[in-house]
Amino acid sequence: MDKALLEQVITIAQQAGEAILEVYQRSEGMDIQTKQDDSPVTAADLAAHAIMEPALAALLDGVPVLSEESKLPPFDVRGQWQSYWIIDPLDGTKEFIKRNGEFTVNIALVEDGIPVMGVVHVPVLNITYAGGRDLGAFKIADGTRTAISSRKLAQHIDSGKPVEVVASRSHGADAVDALMNRIQGALGPVDTKNMGSSLKLCLVAEGAADLYPRLALTSEWDTAAAQAVVEAAGGIVVDDKFQLMRYNTKEDILNPFFYVIGDPSYDWKPLLLG
Ligand SMILES: Nc1ncnc2c1ncn2[C@@H]1O[C@H](COP(=O)(O)O)[C@@H](OP(=O)(O)O)[C@H]1O
Ligand SMILES: [Mg+2]
């Protein structure tokens, strides 16, 4: 992967983040619309989309952009794409509306169904996570860059600390609770932190959490960018059959349920698939 390209993508994500913050900080409140699928969309989602779509389309000749905020091309068209950009201009719109800061800008480059480069920007924290195949993963916090990697589970447990699990604030809580009980039985104490958006995958990437079980629906733009970061940091994202999660393989844009795993050398499969 091209390091210069990743830098350009980081700049685009941060510019979109600034446009989102302008809306976020407006004192008069937000104009919230409801989309066809009942999910909320704000002026911030649309402003970020308007910045990112043309900027990405200009980066690589002939590589299209698929956005949560644009019309989904039929699968007989997009199924032909060898590579494409996939973006979620504002992931965690519910958290944006609740004003808790847990929302992200997401850009991924997908090649042959694999997210090979990703940038996740967190506007309120001014933190950017980035990574790519052969580029490693890193975090930029207030301008300072640090390499990140996911952590080893055995070492973490041996040091007396609980297994740390991240989960959605809004979706799939009952199934995650049942799983927590199984993990607790096998590995001892578990700490669960609830959080919005793709930030959860980034916490696994940077070794601040061990597992993110997603036992509720998401779309491919919700996960592609952060999956690239997780995998560049040494983790994996597997589906409900324990296969690495892949993109653009079918007519609809929904992901299977999935697990984000920081330490692939631990045999999570029996525990997760019960
Ligand atoms: N029924 C559904 N189908 C598809 N995606 C869904 C969904 N319910 C929630 N999501 C996705 O879950 C994301 C929020 O996840 P979380 O609860 O972890 O914050 C939403 O992102 P958006 O905010 O971009 O719409 C949305 O894409
Ligand atoms: Mg989303």
Walk me through the structure.
The protein has a seven-stranded mixed β-sheet, sandwiched between helices. A three-stranded antiparallel β-sheet has the order 12-14-13, covered by helices on one side. A two-stranded antiparallel ribbon has the order 1-2. The chain is globular. β10, α6 and β11 form a beta-alpha-beta unit. It has two domains: 145 residues, Fructose-1,6-Bisphosphatase, Chain A, domain 1, CATH 3.30.540; 121 residues, D-Maltodextrin-Binding Protein, domain 2 (3-Layer(aba) Sandwich), CATH 3.40.190. By secondary structure, it is of the alpha+beta class. The site of magnesium ion (MG) has 4 residues, from β4.
Question: What keyword list fits this structure?
Answer:
3'(2'),5'-bisphosphate nucleotidase CysQ, D-Maltodextrin-Binding Protein, domain 2, 2 domains, 274 residues, alpha+beta, 34% helix, cell inner membrane, binds adenosine-3'-5'-diphosphate, binds magnesium ion, Fructose-1,6-Bisphosphatase, Chain A, domain 1, 7-stranded mixed beta sheet, hydrolase, metal-binding, 3-stranded antiparallel beta sheet, EC 3.1.3.7
The CATH superfamily title of the largest domain: Fructose-1,6-Bisphosphatase, subunit A, domain 1
Number of strands: 14
| Assigned CATH class of the largest domain | Alpha Beta
Spell out the helices and strands N to C: HEEHEHEHEEEEEHEHEHEHEEH
Largest β sheet strand count, sense and barrel closure: 7 strands, mixed
Give me the Rg, rounded.
Answer: 18 Å
Uncertain stretches: none
Number of helices: 9
**What value does the average pLDDT take?**
94
Distance between the termini: 37 Å
Strands ordered across the widest β-sheet: 3-4-5-6-7-8-9
Overall outline: globular
Ligands: adenosine-3'-5'-diphosphate, magnesium ion
CATH architecture of the largest domain: 2-Layer Sandwich
Strand content: 25-35%
Helix content: 25-40%
